[in-house]
Structure formats: structure tokens, C-alpha cells
Design brief:
This protein has a single domain, classed as YVTN repeat-like/Quinoprotein amine dehydrogenase (Methylamine Dehydrogenase, Chain H, 7 Propeller), CATH 2.130.10. With about 500 residues, it is α+β, with helices and mostly antiparallel strands. About 15% of the residues lie in helices and about 35% in strands. The longest helix has 25 residues. The strands form seven sheets. Strands 23, 24, 25, 26, 27 and 31 form a six-stranded antiparallel β-sheet that branches. The protein is built from seven helices and 32 strands. It holds the Pfam family WD40.
């Protein structure tokens, strides 16, 4: 068990090597309109992926000259300017070289500033003790952290004091997933239950086949939905009256009305268990144990609200593997970041099916259990099966450039992760697995402690996105990992959450 005192402060110190390979990744693909046959999905919002390049201002007009010689001079000048303009278009794709250089300098300055901020960052770690088994899921609501565990309980924690606020018992199987509806949807349900309009609700899914809706202020279950299947993933879709979308251990995706809690749809979507479901605007993304990813459009209908837009198999995503694995996903515009127990993150361009790979560990024995986005950060967890080392790797978005790796002595394997920011803009994170830990960012001034360090990895420091032209390397790595997981790759600790690769996660939560 990790022993972390409440006043433990972490200091991040990094010695960046600016001479490392510079990656200039193309701007984030802004989610434009879908093909004409699926126009409703165009409601998805465009975010920070918009290009920051400004149009070149038109040159100032000259004062009017008189006389035939002046007119001839103007014609000659326009001809020369046209030749120069054409030349610039030829060498720079239609954009003057000065503007391209200016954009590069701006992007580099932004990345340098981000690196500098992490160079000075410090965190206080707080251990939240109370669960009797593996923490499988976490979510943050205001100043509260909600965690679900294989011990069948949902616990609510008060972050400022690091104390248990509520113990929500009611499930008879391991809790596998959590989701927090937005405040405006909580108000509607609170009004129907005669509760305060400030009431917040949490959804929990369990291997006991139930989805339960909890009122946090009173610590009670206000609604139970029996799904006839062990629930392995869920999310809330904030469209129209709202929908609850669940995934089962048999690969089924189901939809439920938030307004009436009636069953709306049931689809045999995947061959293996659904291990991750996330929403983005009117779109729903589901990932499964066999590595497949499906993209659904919410049609805001009382019956059959989900319509399949795309399905990409594990062979396409590069996340294929044996049954019992776990794929977690995090969508961003036209891209979906995928983690599937490998030493890298996969990036799926879900409209086209093209993929790229982002190195998340320099060793083949490293496994990635979860991926998360917060602000301009991409955070991937990594656990080394060979030596038991656990880290959080930070990348900048949208370029996916490596920033730092955070670790501390005896850091446990991180199976789930959530992040949010305070009113002052500081980071607060919560990680779960064998231990449940809250990370609270502190001002850079003050005495520094060495509880959390920055682990530099030269291969990650110069990492770049690799296109997936062929998957031969993936197949070799997957074969190696299967052998490693079955024998020597297992952690020597007795904890059931760390007995090999990511496949153990799904088995453990359903027991």
C-alpha cells in the first residue's frame, strides 16, 4: 500500500533537450460535416483544433499617379508582384514563407511555454483509503470524487479534506463504470423527485446487471435499471431529453431514456465485451475487448436513437488481441485515442479508418491501461510488466508532443483516471487501481519535496506519430505480450489487479 502523507508535495524538475526531434504535426482535424447521407452529425462542435494562422493582409494601395508613364510603371509593378506571388505559392503551397515561419514560431513558443509550466509544477498527493478491493472507475463532480470498486461499493470523497463523504452500497457485483450527467439534466430529475435543483446525480454500472442512479446529497439510490446483462461500460449522452448508453460483457450496446428510464434500443454491436463508451456531442463511441471501435449517431428518437456510422475492427485499429482484453478510448474531433495494453497509444481517424501510433513506453514490456484528455493535455498511464514501474505520460495537444513522465516510489498500476481544473486553473487529478489517489496542483513557490519525480525517457522525448502502413510490427509485439503475460510478465505482487496484461482487468471486475 502506498503511504502518502497529506502534506506530501511533489516537485517536477525537467531538463528538456530542445535539440530533440521536432514534430510538427498537422493541425487538429476539425470535425466538419459528415457525408450527405448523415448530416445530423455535423452538429459536433469545432474546438481548439481550428487553425491559428491569419490571412495575409492586402498591401496598402499606392496613391493615384497621373500620366502615361505612371500607368506603364504600375502595370510593370503588378506584373512583377504577380510573378513573386506565383513563386511563393509554388514553394509554400500558396502561403507566403514568412507566414509559415511565423506560425511555426508561434507553435514552438506555445509548446515552450507549456514545457516551462510543467518544469515548475508541484503536486500534493492524497491517499483516499476505504475501498477493500481494486478501484475500477473514477469520476469528478465539483469538489467531490466518486469511485467504484470491485468490492461492490460506490464511494463519494470530499477532495479538500480527503475524507469519505458517502458510502453508496447497493450493488451485489463489482462496480465497473461511472458517469456524471451535466447539471441541467440533473435539475430535471431533481424536480421530478422533489429534490433541490442543485442536486447532482451519478450513474453506476455493475456486473450484477444493474445501472443505479444515485443522489449525492442524500446518498441514496433513486432509480435502478435492470439490463439483463453484466454492465461493463456506460456514458450519458446530453442530447434532447438525454440518454443513458450501456455496454455489456456480451458485446451488446443498449440505450435508455433519461426522461422515462425506458429501454429504447438493444444492438449486438461487438463480438466481445464493451469496455469503453464515450460521447462527443451527438456522437457515441464504443470500444470492445477484441479491439473494435464503433461510432454511433444519436438521432434523438424515442425508439432506436443510435444509428451506426462506422465500425472499425481490431485489425483496422491495431488493437486486436485475445478475449478478455480492455480497450479504453477518448475522442477528440475526428480522432479517437485508444489504449489497449500495449506500449503505445493508437490514434484512429474514425471517418476514414486510418491510424497512427504514439509511443507511450520505450520498452516492449510496457502496457497502457487508460488514456485521458484535459485541456491541452493528453495523459496516458503506463505500467512496466518487467519491473513494476508505473508512470503517467503527458503529451501536448493537438500536436501530441511529449512533455514529461510523472512517477513516484512504489507507484501502483493506474487502471482508471479522471482530471479537472479548479477555478484558478490548477490541475486536480484522481487515479485509481490498487490505490485511490488525488493529485492537487500547488503554487510553484515554497519548499519542494521529492515524493514525485520526473522520469525522462530519451525515446519518448523524441517520439513522433507513426502512420500505420502495415501492422507487421504490431503482430510481433502482440505475440510477445501474450507470452509475457502468461508467464514471466506477471507482477510479483499478490494484488489481483496486476497479474499480467490488461486482459486481467475485465476478468477481475466480473468476478
Amino acid at each position: 500500500m502506498l503511504a502518502v502523507t497529506e502534506d506530501a508535495v511533489c516537485s517536477l524538475h525537467l531538463d528538456y533537450s530542445f535539440s530533440s526531434c521536432f514534430l510538427r504535426w498537422h493541425r487538429e482535424d476539425a470535425p466538419g460535416a459528415l457525408p450527405s447521407q448523415t448530416p445530423p452529425a455535423s452538429k459536433i462542435l469545432k474546438g481548439e483544433e481550428e487553425s491559428k494562422a491569419q490571412a495575409t493582409p492586402a498591401p496598402t494601395a499606392r496613391q493615384r499617379e497621373t500620366g502615361g508613364g505612371a500607368e506603364i510603371g504600375r502595370q510593370q509593378e503588378r506584373t512583377e508582384l504577380a510573378k513573386v506571388s506565383d513563386h511563393l505559392r509554388d514553394v509554400s503551397g500558396g502561403c507566403p514563407e514568412s507566414d509559415k515561419e511565423q506560425q511555426l514560431r508561434q507553435e514552438e513558443a506555445e509548446f515552450t511555454s507549456l514545457k516551462a509550466s510543467w518544469e515548475k509544477a508541484k503536486f500534493r498527493l492524497r491517499l483516499l483509503e476505504g475501498h477493500n478491493d481494486i478501484v475500477t472507475c473514477v469520476v469528478a463532480v465539483d469538489n467531490l470524487v466518486v469511485s467504484g470498486s470491485r468490492d461492490t461499493t460506490v464511494k463519494v470523497w470530499h477532495v479538500p479534506t480527503a475524507t469519505e463523504h458517502k458510502n453508496l452500497g447497493g450493488h451485489t457485483g463489482g462496480v465497473t463504470c461511472l458517469s456524471a450527467p451535466p447539471p441541467e439534466y440533473c435539475k430535471r430529475l431533481a424536480w421530478s423527485l422533489s429534490l433541490s435543483d442543485k442536486e447532482r446525480f451519478i450513474l453506476s454500472g455493475s456486473a450484477d446487471c444493474y445501472v443505479k442512479i444515485w443522489a449525492l446529497s442524500i446518498g441514496q439510490c433513486v432509480k435502478s435499471i435492470y439490463t439483463f446483462n453484466a454492465v461493463t461500460a456506460l456514458c450519458f449522452v446530453p442530447e434532447e431529453d438525454g440518454y443513458i448508453v450501456t455496454g455489456s460483457d456480451g458485446g451488446k450496446v443498449q440505450a435508455w431514456s433519461w426522461h422515462t428510464f425506458e429501454h429504447c434500443q438493444s444492438i449486438n454491436a461487438h463480438q466481445e465485451a464493451v469496455t469503453s463508451i464515450q460521447s462527443q456531442g451527438p456522437l457515441v463511441f464504443s470500444g470492445s475487448a477484441e479491439g473494435g471501435v464503433s461510432v454511433w449517431e444519436n438521432q434523438c428518437s424515442d425508439r432506436d436513437p443510435l444509428r451506426l456510422l462506422h465500425h472499425w475492427s481490431g485489425q483496422v485499429t491495431g488493437c486486436r488481441g485475445g478475449p478478455g482484453g480492455r480497450l479504453t478510448l477518448s475522442p477528440r474531433g475526428d480522432r479517437v485515442f485508444l489504449a489497449y495494453g500495449q506500449a503505445w497509444l493508437k490514434i484512429l481517424h474514425w471517418r476514414t479508418g486510418t491510424t497512427s501510433r504514439l509511443t507511450n513506453h520505450s520498452s516492449i514490456t510496457g502496457v497502457t491501461d487508460c488514456v485521458h484528455q484535459t485541456g491541452g493535455l493528453l495523459i496516458g498511464s503506463c505500467y512496466d510488466l518487467a519491473n513494476g514501474a508505473s508512470t503517467l505520460n503527458l503529451f501536448s495537444l493537438p500536436q501530441c508532443r511529449y512533455l514529461a513522465s510523472l512517477t513516484w516510489p512504489d507507484a501502483p498500476r493506474i487502471l482508471c483516471f479522471a482530471a479537472w481544473t479548479t477555478g484558478s486553473g490548477d490541475h486536480r487529478w484522481v487515479s485509481g487501481g490498487r490505490d485511490l489517489i488525488v493529485w492537487e496542483q500547488l503554487p510553484s513557490s515554497g519548499k519542494q519535496r521529492g515524493d514525485v519525480t520526473v522520469k525522462r525517457d530519451s525515446q519518448l522525448d523524441s517520439c513522433f506519430l507513426e502512420s500505420e502502413e502495415d501492422t507487421e510490427d504490431d503482430e510481433e509485439t502482440d505475440d510477445y505480450r501474450d507470452d509475457d503475460d502468461s508467464d514471466e510478465g506477471r507482477d510479483t505482487r499478490s494484488d489481483g489487479a496486476e497479474d499480467g496484461g490488461s486482459g486481467s482487468w475485465l476478468r477481475c471486475v466480473l468476478q
